[in-house]
Amino acid sequence: MITRIFRVRIRPALRAEFERKFLEISVPYVETKTGYISHIVGYPAKWTPDEYMLLTQWKDENALLAFAGENWNQSVIPEGMEKYVAECWVDHF
Predict the structure, then answer these.
(1) How far is CA 17 from the centre of its chain?
(2) Percentage, residues of the chain above pLDDT 90
(3) Torsion of CA 1, 93, 37, 20, to 10 degrees
(4) Residues 54, 27 contacting (CB under 8 angstroms)
């Protein structure tokens, strides 16, 4: 199993819209992929008020290849979500 941690720093002026779209677009996007196991959404803490996290678990490397392609160590931003992103990161364990 591989854990993927996607972190995003958003444009603060779009916060309310981002939170709604993150749950309506981004989460369902990963849930439909082959090899997806589970997810946890992380919301900002007071020290990082513009950062969110999506932790997903995947069956194996083949599942990540199917989801994110050959460069699965890079972020995957569903269409329409890029306007909210100021910066993003992805890590795997």
Answers:
(1) 16
(2) 92
(3) -170
(4) yes
Residue 37: both structure tokens together: 């196991």
By CB neighbour count within 10 A (0-12 exposed, 13-18 middle, 19+ buried), where does 84 fall? buried
Calculate Rg over the CA atoms of the chain. Answer: 13
| Listed residue (69, 65, 67) closest to 54, CA to CA | 67
How far does Cα 56 stand from its chain's mean position? 8
Alpha helical stretches, state H, the chain: 15-21, 27-31, 61-68
pTM: 0.89
User: pLDDT (tens digit, 9 = 90+) per residue, 49-78?
Assistant: 999 999 999 999 999 999 999 999 999 999
Closest C-alpha among 22, 19, 61, 54 to residue 40? 54
- Report d(CA 66, CA 62) in Å as an integer: 6
Beta strands in the chain (DSSP E): 2-10, 36-42, 51-58, 85-92
